[in-house]
Design brief:
This protein is of the alpha/beta class and 218 residues long. 13% of the residues lie in helices and 22% in strands. It contains three helices and seven strands, in the order αββββββαβα. It is globular and about 45 Å long.
Length: 218
C-alpha cells in the first residue's frame, strides 16, 4: 500500500468529491465507465494478442484498462536482475535526480508506450514523473511515469507497484491478465519531483485525484 494509505472501494458514497476524504478505488472507477478515445489506434497487452485497448480522454487525465506485466528494469537488485528476469535491462527511460536509473524493486512506476502514430504522450501533457493512479482489486496506488515500452503494447508497471497492489511481482511468472486501470493525471500540476520521491507522488496523486473527481462527475 502507498505510504499515505491505500483505500478500498467503500460503499460508493463518493465522499471524496467534497475534499473530506481520500479518493477510493470505487470513486475513481465510477468515472471510467465510458471511453472517449484519444489514441488514433488501439493497443495489445502482449505480443500477438488482439489490439483492442484504447487510451481514453477525460478532463485532466487519460486512462486505459489493461493487464499488468512486470517491469524489472533499471538498477540491479535482489529482485530485479538478469537471473530473476530473462528480459532484464539495466536502464530505464527516466533517471533519478542524481542521474541513476530507477529502482523497479522499490519505486512504484508505470510504463507508457513509446510515442507513435497511435498516441504521443508528450503532446497529451505527460512527461517523466507524471503521476498515475493504478487501480486493482479495490485498491488504488500512486506511481510515476518512469519507463517507456513498445509502441504497440500497453499494461506494464514496476515490481514495486505490483507488490503494493497485491499482484505477484515476479518478473518471470507474475502480473495479472486483466482488471487493472491506469489514470494518468496530465499537465504540469500532475508531475512529482524528484521522480524518486514516492511520498511526493502520493501527495500529488491524491490532490489530482480529488480534482479529477470534481471535474468528471459520475
Amino acid at each position: 500500500m502507498s505510504d499515505a494509505g491505500a483505500s478500498d472501494s467503500g460503499a460508493g458514497s463518493d465522499a471524496a468529491t467534497d475534499g473530506s476524504a481520500e479518493p477510493t478505488a470505487g470513486d475513481l472507477l465510477a468515472r471510467l465507465r465510458s471511453c472517449t478515445p484519444v489514441s488514433a489506434g488501439r493497443y495489445s497487452t502482449d505480443v500477438g494478442t488482439p489490439a483492442n485497448i484504447p487510451i481514453c480522454q477525460l478532463v485532466g487525465a487519460v486512462f486505459w484498462q489493461a493487464d499488468m506485466d512486470i517491469d524489472c528494469d533499471g538498477r540491479v537488485s535482489a529482485q530485479c536482475n538478469a537471473s530473476t528476469d530473462p528480459a532484464f535491462m539495466p536502464q530505464t527511460s527516466a533517471t533519478e535526480s542524481n542521474g541513476q536509473y530507477l529502482d523497479a524493486a522499490t519505486l512504484p512506476y508505470v510504463v507508457v508506450p513509446l510515442p507513435s502514430s497511435r498516441f504521443d504522450y508528450s503532446t497529451a501533457g505527460i512527461q517523466f514523473g507524471t503521476v498515475i493512479a493504478v487501480l486493482y482489486s479495490n485498491r488504488v496506488e500512486y506511481g510515476v511515469f518512469g519507463d517507456e515500452g513498445p509502441a504497440e503494447i500497453i499494461g506494464e508497471a514496476s515490481y514495486a507497484m505490483a507488490q503494493r497492489l497485491g499482484i505477484d511481482p515476479n518478473p518471470s511468472t507474475g502480473g495479472v491478465d486483466s482488471g487493472v486501470s491506469y489514470i494518468v493525471f496530465t499537465g504540469p500540476s500532475g508531475v512529482a519531483a524528484p521522480i524518486e520521491d514516492h511520498n511526493q507522488a502520493v501527495r500529488v496523486g491524491q490532490m489530482r485525484a480529488l480534482q479529477f473527481l470534481q471535474d468528471n462527475p459520475p
